[in-house]
Design goal:
single chain; Beta-lactamase; globular; alpha+beta; two-stranded antiparallel sheet; about 30% helix
Length: about 400
Amino acid sequence: MANKKSLLSLMLAALLLLCSCARHIPAAVPDGGMTTSQALEDNNVHKDSVPDSENPPPGSIEPDSENPPPDKKEPDSPHREEGSSYEAHPAADGDNGDEKNTPPEAESPASQTPEPPDKPQPDTEPLEDISGFSMPEEFFLRLDELLSGYLVNPHCEPDKTPCGCQPELAVDNGDGTVTKDRIVSIYFEDLETKYSFEINPGVHYPVASTVKMPFITLAYQMLEDGRLSPDTVLTYERRHYFGGTGVIVQGDFGQQYTVAQLLTLAITRSDNVAYEMLKDVVSMDEMFDSLRQRGVSHPEDLRKSKQKICLQSAEAYSHILNDYIASDGEYVSLYRQDLLNTRLRLICSSYPVLRKYGWTGFSLHDIAIVEAPHPYILIILTNLDEGTKQDIGLFESISLLVEEYSQSRGEG
């Protein structure tokens, strides 16, 4: 019996010793040299009282920008990708932290630091605070200086609409000089905020080749719809003859071109014969219907002969183009390339410019979409058909002034 008690005592002592040793076994050490408990503790260094899903790793966001509005992110480059839209797209419901989804065990007791209030809903959050964007007073003062040599005209009554300027009146003074009303109309629209301004909106000018913008855009829409084939071959006939710009007019009747070739020539070379040939397969009436749908109401801007243009119709041209370029159409990239490579470039920018210019008697125009970080439409219509160095310089000066102020919002 004594031997049994002694054996039990030895076994009990061994068991106690084993338990004591177990309490001193070192924890497993992960890669990096820290113990598991140290690693877990280190992972919590940057954790606030809000759920893990709302705490990105340190350095992944800039200070004061933890919860940017849905549209605050700038594009990766100032060049818009083909087919992308300029429209603002707020996050879908729940995408911007509408619900915190806090697990029950993560709810903070009263003794802990309370969670910050809920973030604003996307629907009510301003878009990068650009909704209040407008050109400052300084911009208009500088613009007035640029235009001062052009808008002081003998027939002008600035307080009236239209102002009385006569863009197609030129008086021969008999001494080798000509007196005319030198007129400039300007339209600007920020495509993010829809802020816009216009100068001399009531003046109508000869449309010149700017009409090719809505017409060729309609042709591309017909290609997308399958109503027109880029491979259709058209023949240059006498009835298509039209002088002025272009390369087809330099050749003989009987030349043949595909629709795709004519579309490129009509934009890059402003080819008048290409435009006339395309009228065989593209409806002018359909183009005018599309302009009416965009709000064009002046009869002189909607006629086939001696067509005019004012800021209202020019704005419609630009919106028709912008909507198509912003689509995911099969032919968008081809059209965009042509618009970037026109022969005459009046509106200038540091960024890509999609344009259609027009130049004929009593008109020198440019209608442009500028693919800047803050994209915009700029339209300059004039009767400066002499196209002097000073006239071309005016387009450049207005362009650069608009770019400077449209892109520098919030700076300084």
